[in-house]
Amino acid sequence: MSIDTLPPLREVIAAHDLSARKSLGQNFLLDLNLTAKIARQAGDLKGFDVLEIGPGPGGLTRGLLAEGARHVLAIEKDPRCLPALTEIAEANPGRLTVMTGDALQIDPLQHLTPPIRVAANLPYNIGTELLVRWLTPDTWPPFWQSLTLMFQREVAERIVASPGSKAYGRLALLAQWRSDPRIVMNLPPEAFSPPPKVSSAVVHLNALPLPRYPAQPRLLERTVAMAFNQRRKMLRAALKGLAPDIEDRLIASGIKPTDRAETVGLEQFCALARTLEP
Ligand code: SAM
């Protein structure tokens, strides 16, 4: 059976009784033209292993396989989706492995062979946590070459935001430090079944060969988290807990102690994180 002979997703959902569960962030994409388009945003998939989180009934999975992924590893928490995903695996012998469980608890690396791309219509409740994990490993480059991820539009805007904008903060800094995030698609709520309350967007990030500026990931993460936790305060106050001589460190990093976090760029935050290295 080839992928083209698989039934439409509405039939798959009805046949396996996959009524969407809000607690699992289930907003399914049922239009296979749309899932193919998202899969194409991931770049050339031929010769790549692809990690997919939350395949659900498998619309995006089918797109990733049709676009030529060498192998897809799909991690799905909801065991009700397994029969639908098994049908896709049988139609693509040896190219789809499905693991049932929580993507936050499973280490996928032993099942993946580089080069690796990540593509997912993520459950919104774990999207930012996974993104931050993928961006902040101790060593760089990471296991992935690119991430192509669906987020709520507002979160996507935070990932690509520039200094001075309301959306600028920890996510923008961590993403832009080690990758080149771009919004590549916008999707209205009606693209999903059931439609969520908000619009969505697909963000594509290529891993840079080296971070833009040197810094230790834990220290940079801690610095920006603290700076934006109280984003309206001057940095000398917001970062008081970071070091007793924070004013000197801010000045040494090219930051005015009276500046607020949202006006400070990536280069300065990396310089500040470097002053905290033991
Ligand atoms: N990829 C499918 C699509 O585009 O139609 C489904 C997307 S839906 C937004 C999110 C999927 O992630 C659901 O199938 C849900 O069961 C699954 N999920 C939720 N939490 C998860 C977790 N912690 N680990 C793995 N999958 C999870």
Descriptors for this entry?
278 residues; 9 strands; binds S-adenosylmethionine; 17% strand; seven-stranded mixed beta sheet; elongated; single chain; alpha/beta; two-stranded antiparallel sheet; 11 helices
- Encode the helix/strand succession as letters: HEHEHEHEEHEHHEEEHHHH
Gross geometry: elongated
How would a textbook summarize the main sheet? 7 strands, mixed
In terms of quaternary structure, what is this? single chain
Strand content: 15-25%
Describe the structure.
There is one protein chain. By secondary structure, this protein is of the alpha/beta class. The chain has helices spanning 9-15, 32-41, 59-66, 82-91, 124-135, 153-160, 170-178, 217-229, 235-238, 246-252, 266-275, and strands at residues 28-29, 49-53, 71-76, 96-100, 116-121, 146-152, 182-187, 192-193, 200-206. Strands 4-3-2-5-6-9-7 form a seven-stranded mixed beta sheet, sandwiched between helices. Helix 4 links the parallel strand 3 (71-76) and strand 4. Helix 8 crosses helix 11 (266-275). The mean pLDDT is 96. The structure holds S-adenosylmethionine.
